[in-house]
Fold these 2 entries.
Entry 1:
Amino acid sequence: MLPREASSANSLSNSLFDRQADWLARYQYGLRLSEQGNVVSIGDGIAWISGLPSARMEDVVHLEDGSRALVFHLARDRVGAILLRQTSQLTAGTAVFLTGKRLSIGVGRALLGRVIDPLGIPLDDAGPIQFDIYRLLDVRSPPIIARDFVAQPLYTGNKIIDTMIPVGKGQRQLIIGDNGTGKSSLAIDAVINQRDKNVYCVYVLIGQKRSTVVNTIEILRRNQALSNTVLVVAEANAMPGLKYLAPFAGCAVAEAWMAEGYDTLVVYDDLSTHARSYRELSLLLRRPPGREAYPGDIFFLHSRLLERSTRLSSKQGGGSMTALPIIETEQGEIASYIPTNLISITDGQIYLDQQLFARGFLPAIDVTRSVSRIGGNAQHPNIKKEAGRMKLDYLQFLELEVFTRFGSRLEPTMEARIRRGQILREILKQELLTPLTIEFQMAWLVAYNEGMFDHLELDQIKPCLQYLQEQIARTRLSIEEGHEQWRILVRTWLNEMGRA
């Protein structure tokens, strides 16, 4: 053995000896009672256990083969537990032991840039994670007296959302729409936009394919947004128990930062899969089914999760946790069971329409069905003033556009309003992975409201907006500047572009 290896081995043996000596010094003789149960049956991620009369809901139990489970159902003569980790040696008759502990997860800055499962186990190749603090997955939401009003904007970088459907720090804004309409892309854009705004992000992927998970990681890494983001992943082939726990794990991670006074953003992608996983577990545990075979407490499941998102008062540190839950609809039906539940729980919804998507209007946000119950309370006064004028024009245009389909002759004033509406619709189009600064939002709002785009053709709108964006990046103009200064600068830039 080399001298260095011998020294390392000696130090390791000394460390083990010291720990054993310390344990022996603290050991006390006495009678100890413990319960031991046995596995009755196993199947589909569920273990039925007998012989644990002191078991409580959400207790963690250890199985003799090394598996772990979470008590999830209490029957008269047995306990139903959802498996968190299952070994190949797990069979009926395996001994089960109570731990007296609830499920927790390691939290802290060590998680930034990492990919973990709902138990905090790393899924990437960056090595183990050293945790100093652990936090329970399922806790009560902050009381009313610990909360403050939502008054600070959380910018997503999207033209439509930041101007017409604003999101505030501490808000719960639902993203809803059919499959393939761009819900996840919208959430990823919001995460990317937080990379330089001192907002910690948690992206929870529930029941997604591995290719989707890898693609999400690569997009965040390519856009320098992975360093302030944690990904909590329960893949499609994961046990139903892990898919059920995934959003609670992500919430616990974000909640720890909120308690320290930081602003956080957590995305649940998506809660439709989460609801189906919970329904699967409930049916396997023989709970009485309700509407659409969902258990009766499905509403409570999501409400206790989303109620934890809030803005804390200054006495509590002033941190915030903004939630963007994603829910999937079928054929645009928002009145089905799970979507209506989440609409009633959240502070508004961003609705993505399949028909708008098919027409090429991206992002396919239907402004008429989308709403933010926080509204202008979470907007900068300058943006609020300019966006109010623009939104009224857009809603009137959508109503007037219906009449043009009949081929009727319109008055010149009506034609002018429809043309302005068409220009605005072209302005509101936005490509994926291109979050925009709030200063640029202010620039195009002023330009539109002052009629600076009225003389342009539709194909000239995009290069004009790109020129405005370049000028904003060069001048570093603040959103705090008054309307008149914005109007003069924007008009000067557009005149320079016209001369060029």
Note: The chain has three domains: 36-102, 105-379, 383-499.
Entry 2:
Amino acid sequence: MRLATFVAFLAISTTASPVEKRADAFGIDISSHQGSNIKWSTLKSHGISFAYVKATEGRNYVNPYFKNHYDGAKKAGLLHGPFHFARPSASSGSAQASYFISHGGSWSADGHTLPGALDLEGGCAGLTKSAMVSWIKSFSSQYHSSEKRYPVLYITTNWWKSCTGNSAAFGSSHPLWLASWASSMGPLPAGWRSAAIWQYSKETGSTPGDQDRVSGGSAALKKLALGH
């Protein structure tokens, strides 16, 4: 990600519409691709109030910049949360949840830590729809047993339909992080009436990195952190 471009974009996007800025909380999600030199205080000054940081993938990868990213976001006063990139074909959901928790994925009821998120994308991993639902339930059950919170589920509506058969089994308990790179969210997956987080822009060329927003501003963001 080219940080100078990112900051310039934020300066425009977060000041062009004061009403929109008040109505939503803006955030980013990052991984090792962004490197270690992220100016967190600058991002905060340009309207960023939360960040999700990739912690793990499968059961054999830890983001080498995770601590740097996570501590940086925390020190700057941003709400922060970890996410796990799922590899459903590699090992069980419960095993990956345990790996995630052991390598930065835990949650704290401190009002600043967002619940861990499960990043589901990249095809159906050769699983049937029912097997994918079972895998997600396995991950979720293990995470909830340890952290007393259900993980946020990061998905696109198309992925959810293709890989779970549009299951409605998670909407009442799991916050939705919807990826929809358009001017509006579009249709939601079955079971959810709203999205807790909307990833509305993804890094492409000179476009800034992944950008997210929470409708309802800081109050809704705090509610997500506290789980009520």
Note: The longest strand covers residues 48-57.
